[in-house]
Amino acid sequence: MEPLVAAGTQFMREVNAAAVLTRLRAEPSMSVSALAKAVGLSRQAVTRALNALAEEGLIEFGSLDRDSTRAGRPAQLVRFRAEAGHVLGVSISPQDLRVAVADLCGTVVASEAVQFGAHPSADEVVRTLLSTIERTLAAAGRTSLWFASIGTPGIVDPACGVIKLIPSMPGLTGDVLLNRLKEPLGCPIYLDNDVKLATQGERRPDAERREDSLVMLHWGERVGAGIVLNGELYRGASNDAGDIGFLDLFEDGGSPRSRHPHGLGPFEDRVGGEEIVRQATAAAGRAGDGEFLSRVEAAGERAFEAVLAAFADGTPAAVEAIDVVARRFAKGISVIRAILNPRLVVIGGPMARCGEPLLAALRRHLAGEPLDQPVLEVSALQQDAVVHGALLHSLDEIERTRFGLVRTPLSS
Amino acid sequence: MEPLVAAGTQFMREVNAAAVLTRLRAEPSMSVSALAKAVGLSRQAVTRALNALAEEGLIEFGSLDRDSTRAGRPAQLVRFRAEAGHVLGVSISPQDLRVAVADLCGTVVASEAVQFGAHPSADEVVRTLLSTIERTLAAAGRTSLWFASIGTPGIVDPACGVIKLIPSMPGLTGDVLLNRLKEPLGCPIYLDNDVKLATQGERRPDAERREDSLVMLHWGERVGAGIVLNGELYRGASNDAGDIGFLDLFEDGGSPRSRHPHGLGPFEDRVGGEEIVRQATAAAGRAGDGEFLSRVEAAGERAFEAVLAAFADGTPAAVEAIDVVARRFAKGISVIRAILNPRLVVIGGPMARCGEPLLAALRRHLAGEPLDQPVLEVSALQQDAVVHGALLHSLDEIERTRFGLVRTPLSS
DNA sequence: CAGATTAGTTCCGTACCATACATAATTATT
DNA sequence: AATAATTATGTATGGTACGGAACTAATCTG
């Protein structure tokens, strides 16, 4: 409800061009007359708009519609040129790097993933990123890049593109990433927390989006939530809404450990990767499963992944451990439910690999709750969730700034 | 971003009229030239828009600007006719009824409050409501009513104006209220839960509204929350977001009572009015304060209010009791903080009467939290919070439907 | 009282859209 | 095969809203 002003009649044309384009983007191709009928304008108004759009390269007049069985002069087909521009989605983590390029319809035209060695330096990350992006763009063909969205762990301020805190890759703190990518990419760059971007990727794509509400729970070594309400990401007053690692739900003093080991919050401490490993080894010790114990021991830093793999195999100690933390995690979900009442809760992050058995455990622990519980899912995209969310964010941004009504409004 | 279509040049005029009106509403009166400069249109365009608006009765050409010290022809002043229409705000509770009428600028021009006897019947409520509205409207003078918003306890579906569940006044269940008011009021009627309406009243009135986030915690016999995020009320997937009475934070089994007495949720059971009375009598028993005990006893159904009054007087047992529940309540706030990170938390409902001492207790219990905590306030409007929120909602609705850009768009 | 200054009004050209009519290309009918 | 019907496109005309320039109106200043 910004105070738009219709200064001059070209405003009208822009409104109509936006409407025509929006309608056309929903279809592979349409005739001018069909567009006019669908959009509610006269044919000639649509033609004018289409000419302007063709000038911009956003649409293309195709061949005649010879396939139609109907009588009469065949229609001139018009097509949205999805290849007129491309968007980039990037996911950065200490383990790997994922890059994808999509056209303006969201179709992924090229993607690549690169694994890092242990503890890559910031410079290595940036250089690998640049070369990977270059290769991916080359694979996508000669394209103009319109927007790039990048997800990283840690605390990010998307307004100025600055990484505030990133313990797993401290070298990326600040505007390093933005500065070194700005020139090579030559398009607006959006930086945000990976969980928040991934959450946007889980939104409903259809018309009901504005009504949608969902919470994505990243569950791994640490725990964090991305929150989408009324169809848009909610950030919170100081940009850390969804910091549920700091939920303090278990005051019964189950463990005598220090309050916040390694900077973990109370909830993470009771359901995160470290606790899962602890629970699993304890369970294995009770059951006398020396084979499993030594396997976890051998995994060293990757003990958590070893437990997850064992869970997939059905190893009893791992199953028992994950059931223990699932009970605690369910309590977190019930709290989120009471406050937010979301339609959907998606489990993402490493724990998503546990799949349906994990969901079953969570549902079991939630069964006694008095309120109706949200739909529970495991992220279908797994490791690609962040890249996917980043691509969708880029497309949203394009839609808002280039295809939307709010293109050249004069504000009062 | 609805697919608006500019069909015909009159669309342009409507957009411009809306812009002119929006600008004018921010000022007591303005000259045409000043408006043109402020809005970015030519003088003629503004004049045309003003003529149309004057036709509708929304503005008025006033006297010349004789106060101006500047040289030249004095300007013709234009004024927004706030008295062109009025809106109604109503609050219904089992104890009382509050009605207020405001003009289109939100200035309250008449209001009235009526106390009920114990347990009024639905018919009594409706009849009292009708006569009170009639008196209030009469006091406001000859006015046309544009919109009415009504807040009631219980579960309300605002989309269809139906009260789903209202244990304190079961006779109002269903569409009774809507049906009996529709004809006499002769304007759109909006029904919603009282806490949700009151919450909207606490939103920032300024331009930052779209960024604002706040939680209003109704704290009385029962506990519920209203949530405003990104400047708009958040309802949740099944319309019961903020049902924090059902938070289950205290699993240490402090009390051996049955799980959900009187339909109360676990959190309400540990911080609500009944528990406060229990704590207060227990404390008085320990301290041997027989005078206080008998005062509470004598209050009968109003024991909770007696304890609140005692707290205001500084009676030790009441202070002690409220400190106990404040500790528990603070835990609820910290959970809300971790998930939502709101800018502001407002305490409303009966407990708001405890004022600053209560806030001090809550802040004390929150001091140890690792995350920065939101601003804590007590509702300044107290019992008028719901009427105020209802008025604001009515005005918002008017702004959206009559003053906004989205007036007569053709949708595709 | 003349000139300066600011405000409001009138006229005209431009741009947009809608309606109506003419033309083009195809299918169905005779 | 010629003609009618159908559908899509292209072109002319009229109405309306905007902006700019020129003009009129009302006040102040010297």
From TrEMBL, chains A, B:
Residue span, HTH crp-type domain: 22-65
Keywords: Kinase, Transferase
Family matches, as InterPro entries: ATPase_NBD (IPR043129), HTH_CRP (IPR012318), HTH_MarR-typ (IPR000835), ROK (IPR000600), WH-like_DNA-bd_sf (IPR036388), WH_DNA-bd_sf (IPR036390)
Pfam families given in the database record: MarR (PF01047), ROK (PF00480)
SMART domains (UniProt xref): HTH_CRP (SM00419)
UniProt keyword Transmembrane, yes or no: no
GO MF annotation list: DNA binding; DNA-binding transcription factor activity; kinase activity
Family of this protein: Belongs to the ROK (NagC/XylR) family.
Identification of the protein by name: Sugar kinase
Species this chain originates from: Nonomuraea glycinis
